[in-house]
């Protein structure tokens, strides 16, 4: 399997000021998804941007990204086989489910 070349030294960096308590909430969610906080934030940004149609295919996460597990790569590959309408509907459903889960916790 081809391994993507990724270096935190060459990656774009952006400092974000988080409201009080958000860092801890992100850490918990990332742990639950078996991801780093950085991967969790990137996944959620991509999800919301895909939902809005703000990401082009060339910008969206690549299948060979080291940030993705094998299972996530398979899901992403299947997701890309859906029509744009189906993708938007699925992302909206997942976002709604995540909101409900956050309200319950």
TrEMBL record:
Q: Which GO terms describe its molecular function?
A: DNA binding
Describe the location of the Arc-like DNA binding domain by residue ranges. Answer: 8-56
BP GO annotations: regulation of DNA-templated transcription
Q: Residues of the signal sequence?
A: none
Query: Which Pfam family, any one, appears in the UniProt record?
Result: Arc
Looking up InterPro entries in the UniProt record yields: Arc_DNA-bd_dom, Arc_rbn_hlx_hlx, Ribbon_hlx_hlx
Protein name, UniProt field: Alginate biosynthesis transcriptional activator
Supply the source organism for this entry: Metapseudomonas furukawaii
């Amino acid at each position: 399997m081809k391994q993507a070349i990724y270096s935190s030294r060459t990656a774009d960096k952006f400092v974000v000021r988080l409201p009080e308590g958000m860092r801890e909430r992100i850490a918990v969610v990332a742990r639950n998804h078996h991801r780093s906080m950085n991967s969790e934030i990137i996944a959620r940004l991509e999800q919301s941007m895909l939902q809005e149609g703000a990401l082009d295919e060339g910008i969206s996460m690549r299948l060979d990204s080291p940030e993705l597990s094998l299972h996530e790569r398979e899901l992403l590959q299947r997701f890309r086989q859906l029509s744009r309408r189906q993708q938007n509907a699925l992302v909206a459903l997942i976002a709604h489910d995540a909101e409900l889960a956050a309200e319950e916790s």
